[in-house]
Amino acid sequence: MFNIHETIWAIINFLILFAVLGLVFYRPILRLLDRRRQEVADSLQQAEDARRKAEEMRSAYEERLRKAEQEAAAVLARASQAAEDARAQAVARAEAEAGRLLEVARETIRRERDQALAALRQEVGSLAVAAAERVLRKVLTPEDHERLIREFVDEVGERPC
C-alpha cells in the first residue's frame, strides 16, 4: 500500500541526493565541459589560422611561379633572339666571304686569260714569222722581219677571242 510517510522520506532523500550530486559532480562536470568547449574553440581557431596561412603561402607560391614562368619566357625570347642574330651574322659573313672569293676567282681567271692570250699571240706570231721566214728567208731583211712580227701581233691582238 501506499505509505505517505515513506513517500515523503523518499522525496527528501531524493532531493538531498540531488543536492549532493549537484554540489559534488555537477560543477566539476560543467567545468570539464567548459574546458572541453574552449579546447574545441581554440582548435577551430588554430585550424582557421593554419588554413589562412596556407592560403597565403599558396598565393605567394603561385605568384613566384608566375614570375618564374615570365622570367623563363623572357630568357627563351632573349636566347631565341641571340640565336637569330648569330645566324644572321654568320650568313652575312658567309655571303661576304663568298663575294670576296668570287671576286678573287674572277680576277684570277681574268689574269690567267690575259696571260694565255699574250702567250698565244706571241706563239702565233713566232710561228707565223718562222713560216714566213722560211718562205722569204732570202728576200727579207732583219728590219722587215721585225716589222712583219709587229704587224701580225697587232692584227691578232685586234681580233676578238
Walk me through this protein's architecture.
The protein has 161 residues and is mainly α. The protein has one domain (4-158). It is 93% helix and 0% strand. It contains two helices and no strands. Helix 1 packs antiparallel against helix 2 (142-158). The longest helix is centred in the middle third of the chain and has 133 residues, at 4-136. The protein is rod-shaped. The chain starts with a helix and ends with a helix.
What's the arrangement of secondary structure elements?
Elements: H1 4-136, H2 142-158
Helix pairs in contact: 1-2
Number of strands: 0
Structural class by secondary-structure content: mainly alpha
Q: Note the run of SSEs as H and E.
A: HH
Question: Number of helical segments?
Answer: 2
Based on Cα principal axes, name the global outline: rod-shaped
| Fraction of residues in β-strands | under 5%
List the domain count as a whole number.
Answer: 1
Portion of residues in helices?
over 70%
Provide mean pLDDT, rounded.
86
Separation, N- and C-terminal Cα atoms: 160 Å
Largest sheet: none
Radius of gyration: 61 Å
Poorly predicted tracts of residues:
none
